[in-house]
Amino acid sequence: MDNPAGRRFRSRDWFADPQRSDMTALYLERFMNYGLTPEELRSGRPIIGIAQTGSDLSPCNRIHLDLARRVRDGIRDAGGIPMEFPVHPIFENCRRPTAALDRNLAYMGLVEILYGYPIDAVVLTTGCDKTTPAGIMAASTVDIPAIVLSGGPMLDGWHGGELVGSGTVIWRSRRQLAAGEIDEDEFLQRACSSAPSAGHCNTMGTASTMNAVAEALGLSLPGCAAIPAPYRERGQMAYETGRRIVGMAFEDLRPSRILSRESFLNALSVVSCAGGSSNAQVHIMAMARHAGVDLRPQDWTDEAYDLPLLLNMQPAGKFLGERFFRAGGVPALMWELQQAGRLHGDCASVTGRTVAQNIEGRETSDREVIRPFDAPLMEKAGFLVLSGNLFDFGILKTSVISQRFRERYLNRPGHEGVFEARAVVFDGADDYHARINDPALDIDEGCILVMRGAGPIGWPGSAEVVNMQPPDALIQRGIQTLPTLGDGRQSGTADSPSILNVSPESAVGGGLCWLRNGDLIRIDLNAGRCDALVSADEIARRQRELPAPPVPASQSPWEEMYRNHTGQLVDGATLDMALKYRRIAEKTPRHNH
What sequence ranges are listed for the domain Dihydroxy-acid/6-phosphogluconate dehydratase C-terminal (predicted)? Predict the structure, then answer.
């Protein structure tokens, strides 16, 4: 690609500094040992980083080890020079005590690479839940041209002639195991059947949600998020992404020129009408804060709660990723929103065109999967923000509230949307697993299960443990779900009706720390309230008499650093000292010798 504007890329400060020829030689020489030439690196062509998130420790993203070849081809063909580098691994299913610790760690590492090395633009490879926000957060901090390439979901899972969605089948099979309907071998077979190929979760869990968010924000090429990992279109998308990032480098099309309040509101709308993950609240807030965009927690309710559920995809619906792709993917969802006047179509994107231009003519061909705006799967299926005397912020994903749950709790004549339940409180997941089947707790369908000690400081990192299932005895009686509440998170693939991400958490003195077994909790979805029916005087007395909240000792240096610098889930659990750093690539680092 020509450089008509004669743009000088930041990598020239490494490889063509007329004031320090000695340093230029030092920077150049070691790149020669794998075949690059001085002429390439001093040519004025942009050096394009490929942030490689795939590895054996990141199975959901491992497809990128192959896709990177096509990204390189696209970069070279468009006139750029590719340089691939590793990103700290993030694997939701395997990382203990939680992969939430890794998002901020990967963010910091990526910031240092993008800032401290001769990289002019970057392809962010994504897939598993937190790889997407980590990359976007870092690109926003550094502010060099960046484009997101998802690795794509796995192929649809099948078992016994039925669709089995990754993650979602785990939670449903757990209940069937507790009810005695299946044995452990059947459980394992179902789990394995749900993961039939390379790729991330094939449900609309956090991985699919966050890659859809990247596309809704305008940071991916149209259609990128939904292409299944093994499909030929995925390799073609990798090639086109490589080509496009070179164009973005010449155009100086940086995140700060794409991301806006309106683009983030588009993302909230897509998550809501897709039945997306409640974890999106945490990650979208973190990305907005690092981008310097004014996004407020209440926006989830004020801007997107009244949106209908349009996507018929597990866990809120029936189908899986392949069918979503064939139905048109994210552009088809955004087209529905635009037709209804619920999309900011003038937002910028990595294509250099507006969002409206990107989705022109992208109406779905499969109305069983993507429903019309005026004939949805569910009305008002967005996220409700709640507050009360127990917390300042909590969020409820309404699209997974089953009809049976609504009839039991939310449809009392004269009290629609309001119910009261007796609290059964657990101090962390270990306490829950040890005591959930204890008959002395006397858990019945009039109870709400409460998890505390699961937030960013208490866990640490905030764990996906709030989607607690009822005692085995209740499940055997046909009661599959109870309301749950906690200061942690839950898997985006779960179908539990939970009040999540409660802030402030109990470990920092939030209201859950004084809650006791047997307290009545009143939940009013109409007013957005969640309150313990405990007098103000009694609350004050409990607070005075409470010991310091129990917080397990940190087990690693990073856990201690994380606890000392990370905020609450309501604000995205970001690192406090990191938010002041924006557009740092505008200043080149000093020489190293």
Answer: 368-573
DSSP for 373-391, please give it.
TTS-SBSS-SEEEEBSSS-
Q: How many CA atoms lie within 13 A of 110 on its CB side?
A: 37
Whole-model pTM? 0.97
Q: What whole-number distance in Å separates Cα of residue 425 and Cα of residue 506?
A: 12
Reference 496, options 172, 272, 61; nearest CA is 172
Burial class (CB in 10 A: 0-12, 13-18, 19+), 17: middle
Give domain status of residue 490, yes or no. Answer: yes
- Closest by CA to 90, choosing from 127, 51, 137, is 127
Are 421 and 281 part of one and the same domain? no
Question: In this structure, which amino acid lies at residue 222?
Answer: P
- The residue range of the domain holding 124 is 12-154+201-294
Q: What is the token pair recorded at 166? A: 């990754």
Residue 250, CB-side half-sphere exposure with 13 Å CA sphere: 19
Contacts for 314 with CB less than 8 Å, ≥ 6 apart: 163, 165, 168, 203, 204, 320, 493
* Residues 255 and 134 placed together within one structural domain of the fold: yes
C-alpha dist (Å) from residue 421 to 393, 415, 501: 19, 14, 20
How far, in Å, are 435, 445, 452 from residue 439 at the CA level? 9, 14, 21
Same domain, 290 and 391: no
CATH number at residue 20: 3.40.50.2300
Q: What does the block give as tokens for 345?
A: 């179509």
Looking at the structure, tell me whether residues 270 and 135 fall in a common domain: yes
Query: Where among 267, 294, 321 does a domain terminate?
Result: 294
Of the residues 294, 327, 349, the one at which a domain ends:
294
Q: Which residues pair with 52 in a beta bridge?
A: 86
Shared domain check, 248 and 137: yes
Residue of 390, 398, 388 lying closest to 496 (CA atoms): 398
Q: How confident is the chain (593 residues) per 10-residue block, as mean pLDDT?
A: 74 94 94 95 97 98 99 99 98 94 98 99 98 99 99 97 93 90 94 96 97 99 99 99 99 99 99 97 98 98 97 97 99 99 98 99 98 97 97 96 90 93 97 97 97 97 95 93 96 83 97 97 97 98 88 96 98 97 95 93
Find out whether 417 and 524 touch, Cβ atoms under 8 Å. yes
Check the CA dihedral 582-583-585-587 and report its sign. negative
CATH number for the domain that contains residue 438: 3.50.30.80
> 216 in a domain, yes or no?
yes
- Would 48 be classed as within a structural domain? yes
Examine residue 488 and state whether it is found in any structural domain, yes or no.
yes
- How many residues are there in the chain? 593
